[in-house]
From TrEMBL:
Cofactor: Zn(2+)
EC number assigned by the record: 6.1.1.7
Class of enzymatic activity (EC top level): ligase
Known function: Catalyzes the attachment of alanine to tRNA(Ala) in a two-step reaction: alanine is first activated by ATP to form Ala-AMP and then transferred to the acceptor end of tRNA(Ala). Also edits incorrectly charged Ser-tRNA(Ala) and Gly-tRNA(Ala) via its editing domain.
Organism: Paraconexibacter antarcticus
Cofactor descriptive note: Binds 1 zinc ion per subunit.
Name used for this protein in its record: Alanine--tRNA ligase
Catalytic activity: tRNA(Ala) + L-alanine + ATP = L-alanyl-tRNA(Ala) + AMP + diphosphate
Length: 465
């Protein structure tokens, strides 16, 4: 099954069961929702319905939502299953069916729609947590037993795995997840679902949205008992196309091929090729939804993604001006499903070219400086600050390159220097000027003042993982 067929199979199944099909919402969340920087799950655009703030167009909805998860950046190219940008398929019940109904639909579609063998599918449920005042989810266990899942393939897990929060505050609830046992070639005899192993691949999460969490972390029951599910389209493609990783699926093969074509080093690292494939998709979709590179919030996520891609492009020896080539392939593979990519093509290319030109110019010098420090085996706060301020290196990139040479960076010291700089620039006319240099050129492209707001603002809360 192609990715397009997986998407259509899912949406058509739920339409046939009276769900109203919704278009994907933007990657930029609605203005009323400050709980996340970017859309990380299918329920985000529907949040007002879950919270009872707005009436839903129908009690049953289904969608394929564009998602972006910043915390998964470091997993890209390392695990088989993580992307930053991915598509999430979902079915939603707003006060209509609850656990039993959600389990019955999930089991039917998994077996009869996607043809999984029942003996390969395992499920997890919430084991309960006395501190939260919630017991084991017996209702979910009973629902799985009722459709024929044997008790030994129903695993109870803690809140870290089986309680889902849509953000720091807002709708949340226990969840139940479906895993496929990919067999011993992917892991060990005693592996179980819910762990970090690659043998059991999590492909679908059924969230039983029944609470609203406030700032004090108090849970209050929502007006309705709701269902919110999320199935990873790209993970389904791994399974249904019989491949090992998301990078071997139909949406990614043309991007991986392009990387090999552009590479001039003898043996380009697989990880770099994967990071390039993922990040170029991510930047294309983010820009199409109106994000522009900057030093703050979601603009910083985009900038970090672009600069990391440019750095890995250099590692594989891609010629200057390579990013637009990736954008073209993303448009070829995704443009039919997401026509906004075509509408926004010129803007996407403009930002991508500008960033590659600006940062590409300072990258070599910055890496040279970084190299000198790494040889000494030490990277202090002042060096990290200089790399950031003069050469435009996101701190995460400095930390990552240093870690490869087993060197740790004084991140706390870096933050102090950044705070000092922020105070200076807030000081107006009397403030000391910045270091200046090539990074100003990069900065100038974004038309925004430089204020580093730090990694803590980049949270994309999902499960407490
Ligand atoms: P994992 O434990 O593998 O990180 P998760 O538990 O964080 O996944 P959920 O928050 O439950 O994921 O999201 C619902 C579904 O979305 C997952 O079951 C999976 O199929 C898909 N998904 C989640 N994160 C990613 C990602 N980074 N890349 C691709 N698909 C993802
Ligand atoms: Mg998980
Ligand atoms: Mg999950
Ligand atoms: Mg995760």
């Amino acid at each position: 099954m192609t990715s397009d067929e997986i998407r259509e199979t899912f949406l058509a199944f739920f339409e046939a069961h009276e769900h109203k099909r919704q278009r994907s919402g933007s990657l930029v969340p609605a203005a009323f929702d400050p709980s996340v920087l970017l859309t990380t799950a299918g329920m985000h655009p529907l949040k007002a319905y879950f919270m009872g703030l707005e009436a839903p167009p129908a009690p049953r909805l289904t969608s394929c939502q564009k998602c972006f998860r910043t915390p998964d950046i470091d997993n890209v190219g390392v695990t088989a299953r993580h992307l930053t940008f991915f598509e999430m398929l979902g079915n939603f019940s707003l006060g209509d069916y609850f656990k039993q109904g959600a389990v019955e639909f999930a089991w039917d579609l998994t077996l009869n729609g996607f043809g999984f063998k029942p003996e390969d599918v395992w499920v997890t449920v919430f084991e309960g947590d006395p501190a939260m005042g919630i017991g084991a989810d017996q209702e979910a266990i009973d629902a799985w037993l009722s459709v024929g899942v044997p008790r030994e393939r129903i695993i109870e897990c803690p809140a870290s795995e089986n309680f889902w929060w849509s953000g720091e505050t807002g709708p949340c609830g226990p969840c139940s997840e479906l895993y496929l046992d990919r067999g011993l070639e992917f892991g060990a005899e005693d592996d179980l679902p819910g762990g970090e192993n690659e043998r059991f691949l999590e492909f679908w999460n059924l969230v039983f949205m029944q609470f609203d969490q406030d700032e004090q972390k108090t849970l209050t029951p929502l007006p309705n008992q709701n269902i919110d599910t999320g199935m990873g389209l790209n993970r389904m493609a791994v399974i249904l196309q019989g491949v090992e990783t998301v990078f071997d699926t139909d949406q990614f093969v043309p991007l991986m091929d392009l990387g090999r074509e552009l590479a001039t080093v003898a043996e380009p690292e697989e990880r770099s090729l994967r990071i390039l494939a993922d990040h170029t998709r991510g930047m294309t979709f983010l820009i199409a939804d109106g994000v522009v590179p900057s030093s703050e919030d979601r603009g910083y996520v985009l900038r970090r993604l672009m600069r990391r891609a440019i750095q890995h492009g250099r590692r594989i020896g891609a010629p200057h001006g390579f990013l637009p080539r990736y954008v073209d392939v993303v448009l070829d593979t995704m443009g039919t499903a997401y026509p906004e990519l075509h509408t926004e093509k010129e803007r996407i290319l403009k930002w991508v070219r500008a960033e590659e030109e600006g940062f590409g110019r300072t990258l070599e010098q910055g890496l040279g400086l970084l190299e000198q420090h790494l040889e000494k085996g030490d990277l202090d706060a002042a060096a990290a600050f200089q790399l950031h301020d003069t050469f435009g290196f996101p701190i995460e990139m400095t930390v990552e390159v240093a870690a490869e040479a087993d060197v740790t960076v004084d991140e706390a010291g870096f933050k102090v220097l950044m705070d000092e700089q922020r105070l200076r620039s807030a000081g107006g006319a009397g403030a000391k000027g910045r270091v200046g240099g090539a990074a100003d050129l990069v900065r100038g492209l974004s038309n925004k003042p430089t204020t580093f707001t730090g990694y803590e603002h980049l949270d994309q809360h999902t499960t407490v993982a």
